[in-house]
Amino acid sequence: MVLDLLTLTAIPTAVGASEAVHQQRVLDKEAESEERQTLFYLDVFCDAQSRKRDEVHTAMVVLKDGKLRLWPKDPHTKLPKTDPGGGSPPHPFTGFYLPFPTEDLPNHPIPAPPILGLVSTIPPDSSVPKDKRKKPKLNWIYADKRTRELKYGPRVEARQHIIGPWDWTDDDEQGLILNGEECLVAVEEESGGLGWAVYWDGEDDRLKAVGIAQEKRVLRCSLERRLVEE
């Protein structure tokens, strides 16, 4: 059988597309498992040798002002403490794993390999009365490719940055990892105990390569999953 040139050049693309479809089906099946879709909070474990360690260790991750921040945890409720300024407690990260639609990524290859993303419920709109609020909305969690801050936002915003792959540690399925590594750190943006935010330390150098360590305190930490009890 003789194949023309057009047919021959189309074979690699067809094979690649078939493999991408297969990978996507595998990822979708895994993401649809009960374990992947179980809601969880994120607690902070920090063993850094720092006088500021206690401001980070045992805190939990919250969504506040567009970013993932650290907040003291109430020892009884295991949820964020009341704002010392008199406001309501911030919204705790409450998320699960979900494949990110790779067709939405800018300049994505064809076929595009699947990427496991991470989503969380977001703070409710304070302008809407509680009795009229609908089902909690979800946002994608991503690392800002320029500042390395962990943020939350809609898909159109997240796709411009680092949206995954997210996963959990193989040994205990508790530690949160990005790009295959436990590479998340706490950065003290403001003093006073409530000024810590979560950043992505892709180079594993406490953000020295991007100039943050020279200006702010950076503590290595582990963000660990705690399942939401119904």
Summarize the structure.
The chain is built from three helices and 14 strands. With 230 residues, the chain is α+β, with helices and mostly antiparallel strands.
Task: Please provide a written account of the structure.
15% of the residues lie in helices and 29% in strands. The protein is an alpha+beta fold and 230 residues long. The strands form 5 sheets. It has a 4-stranded antiparallel beta sheet with strand order 5-6-7-8. The chain has a 3-stranded antiparallel beta sheet with strand order 3-2-4, with no helix packed on it. Strand 11 and strand 12 (196-200) form a beta hairpin. It is globular. The protein starts with a helix and ends with a strand. It comes from Lentithecium fluviatile CBS 122367. Keywords: Signal. This is Protein HRI1.
Task: Looking at this protein, list some descriptive labels.
3 helices, globular, alpha+beta, 230 residues
Our estimate of the beta-strand percent is 25-35%
Residue ranges: pLDDT <50 for 5 or more in a row? 5-9, 13-17
Number of domains: 1
Return the structural class. alpha+beta
Helix content: 10-25%
Whole-number mean pLDDT: 86
Radius of gyration, taken over Cα atoms and rounded to an integer in Å: 20 Å
Oligomer: single chain
Widest sheet: strand ordering = 5-6-7-8
Helix-strand blueprint:
Layout: H1 5-31, E1 40-45, H2 53-56, E2 60-64, E3 67-71, E4 91-92, E5 95-100, E6 115-121, E7 138-143, E8 150-153, H3 155-158, E9 166-168, E10 176-178, E11 184-188, E12 196-200, E13 217-220, E14 222-227
Antiparallel strand pairs: 1-14, 2-3, 2-4, 5-6, 6-7, 7-8, 9-10, 11-12, 11-13
